[in-house]
Amino acid sequence: AQSVTQPDIHITVSEGASLELRCNYSYGATPYLFWYVQSPGQGLQLLLKYFSGDTLVQGIKGFEAEFKRSQSSFNLRKPSVHWSDAAEYFCAVAGDYGGSQGNLIFGKGTKLSVKP
Amino acid sequence: DSGVTQTPKHLITATGQRVTLRCSPRSGDLSVYWYQQSLDQGLQFLIQYYNGEERAKGNILERFSAQQFPDLHSELNLSSLELGDSALYFCASSVWGGGETQYFGPGTRLLVL
């Protein structure tokens, strides 16, 4: 069965420091991978996605992620964190229910806190 | 703004009651998805529709049902509500429902007392 693991429940970084959020997936075929961000009381906003091609993908707000098939990972990175990045981050893989690779399977999320 | 709208934003009701959540997809999107976000279960896929037809079912309870209308808006009906149904319910839409980007609405927060 498809699954997504985000090993870190909560991460705290200092403003200006670099960030890496980990994501591991389990999926038999070529995965479609996504990172979403959820600010308190808000919906989910897409940061970036990987479908195929270049394994390093750029997203909005200065985020990037690297797809590593050998490690079944899709880690999210940002070189310098801003206080406004404090939010919860979700990694997801497009699943396969009944032959339709449409719905998303989410990890449990990583809550990011930013210290001034 | 994702272009996906959901109403109402908040809903407070009692156990045993029935509620209807509404979703309007982005213009041009044919596929609608429903997700439930709760503290204990996280974000879970409930059900997907494509152009009026049910395409995939996830962890949706039998007490819950959904439909997509000819104008492509969708409704999620929750009946015989229990305390554990309290959650944030998201609707998302995509162009054709085959794994491409999904755009999420702001959610409906349901509180069952």
Give a quick rundown of the structure.
The complex is a heterodimer of chains A (116) and B (113). Helices cover 0% and strands 50% of the residues of chain A. Chain A has no helices and 12 strands.
Which secondary structure elements does this structure contain, and how are they paired or packed?
The complex is a heterodimer of chains A (116) and B (113).
Chain A: E1 3-5, E2 10-14, E3 19-21, E4 24-26, E5 33-38, E6 44-50, E7 56-58, E8 64-68, E9 73-78, E10 87-94, E11 104-106, E12 110-115
Parallel strand pairs in A: 2-12
Antiparallel strand pairs in A: 1-4, 3-9, 5-6, 5-10, 7-8, 8-9, 10-11, 10-12
Chain B: E1 5-7, E2 10-13, E3 19-24, E4 31-38, E5 42-50, E6 53-57, E7 64-68, E8 74-78, E9 87-94, E10 103-104, E11 108-112
Parallel strand pairs in B: 2-11
Antiparallel strand pairs in B: 1-3, 3-8, 4-5, 4-9, 5-6, 7-8, 9-10, 9-11
Number of helical regions of chain B: 0
Q: What is the CA-atom radius of gyration of chain A, in angstroms?
A: 14 Å
Through-space gap between termini of chain B: 31 Å
What is the overall number of helices of chain A?
Answer: 0
The geometry of chain A reads as globular
Into which percentage range does the β-strand content of chain A fall?
over 45%
Series of secondary-structure elements of chain A, N-terminal to C-terminal: EEEEEEEEEEEE
Radius of gyration of CA atoms of chain B, rounded to a whole number: 13 Å
Assembly annotation: heterodimer
What does this structure look like?
The complex is a heterodimer of chains A (116) and B (113). Chain A is mainly beta and 116 residues long. Helix content of chain A is 0%, strand content 50%. The model of chain A has no long low-confidence stretch (mean pLDDT 91). Chain B has 113 residues and is an all-beta fold. In chain B, 0% of the residues lie in helices and 53% in strands. Chain B contains no helices and 11 strands. In chain B, strands 2, 4, 5, 6, 9, 10 and 11 form a 7-stranded mixed β-sheet that branches. A 4-stranded antiparallel β-sheet of chain B has the order 1-3-8-7, with no helix packed on it. Chain B is globular, with a radius of gyration of 13 Å. The N and C termini of chain B lie far apart (31 Å). The mean pLDDT of chain B is 94. Classes of the chains: A mainly beta (116), B mainly beta (113).
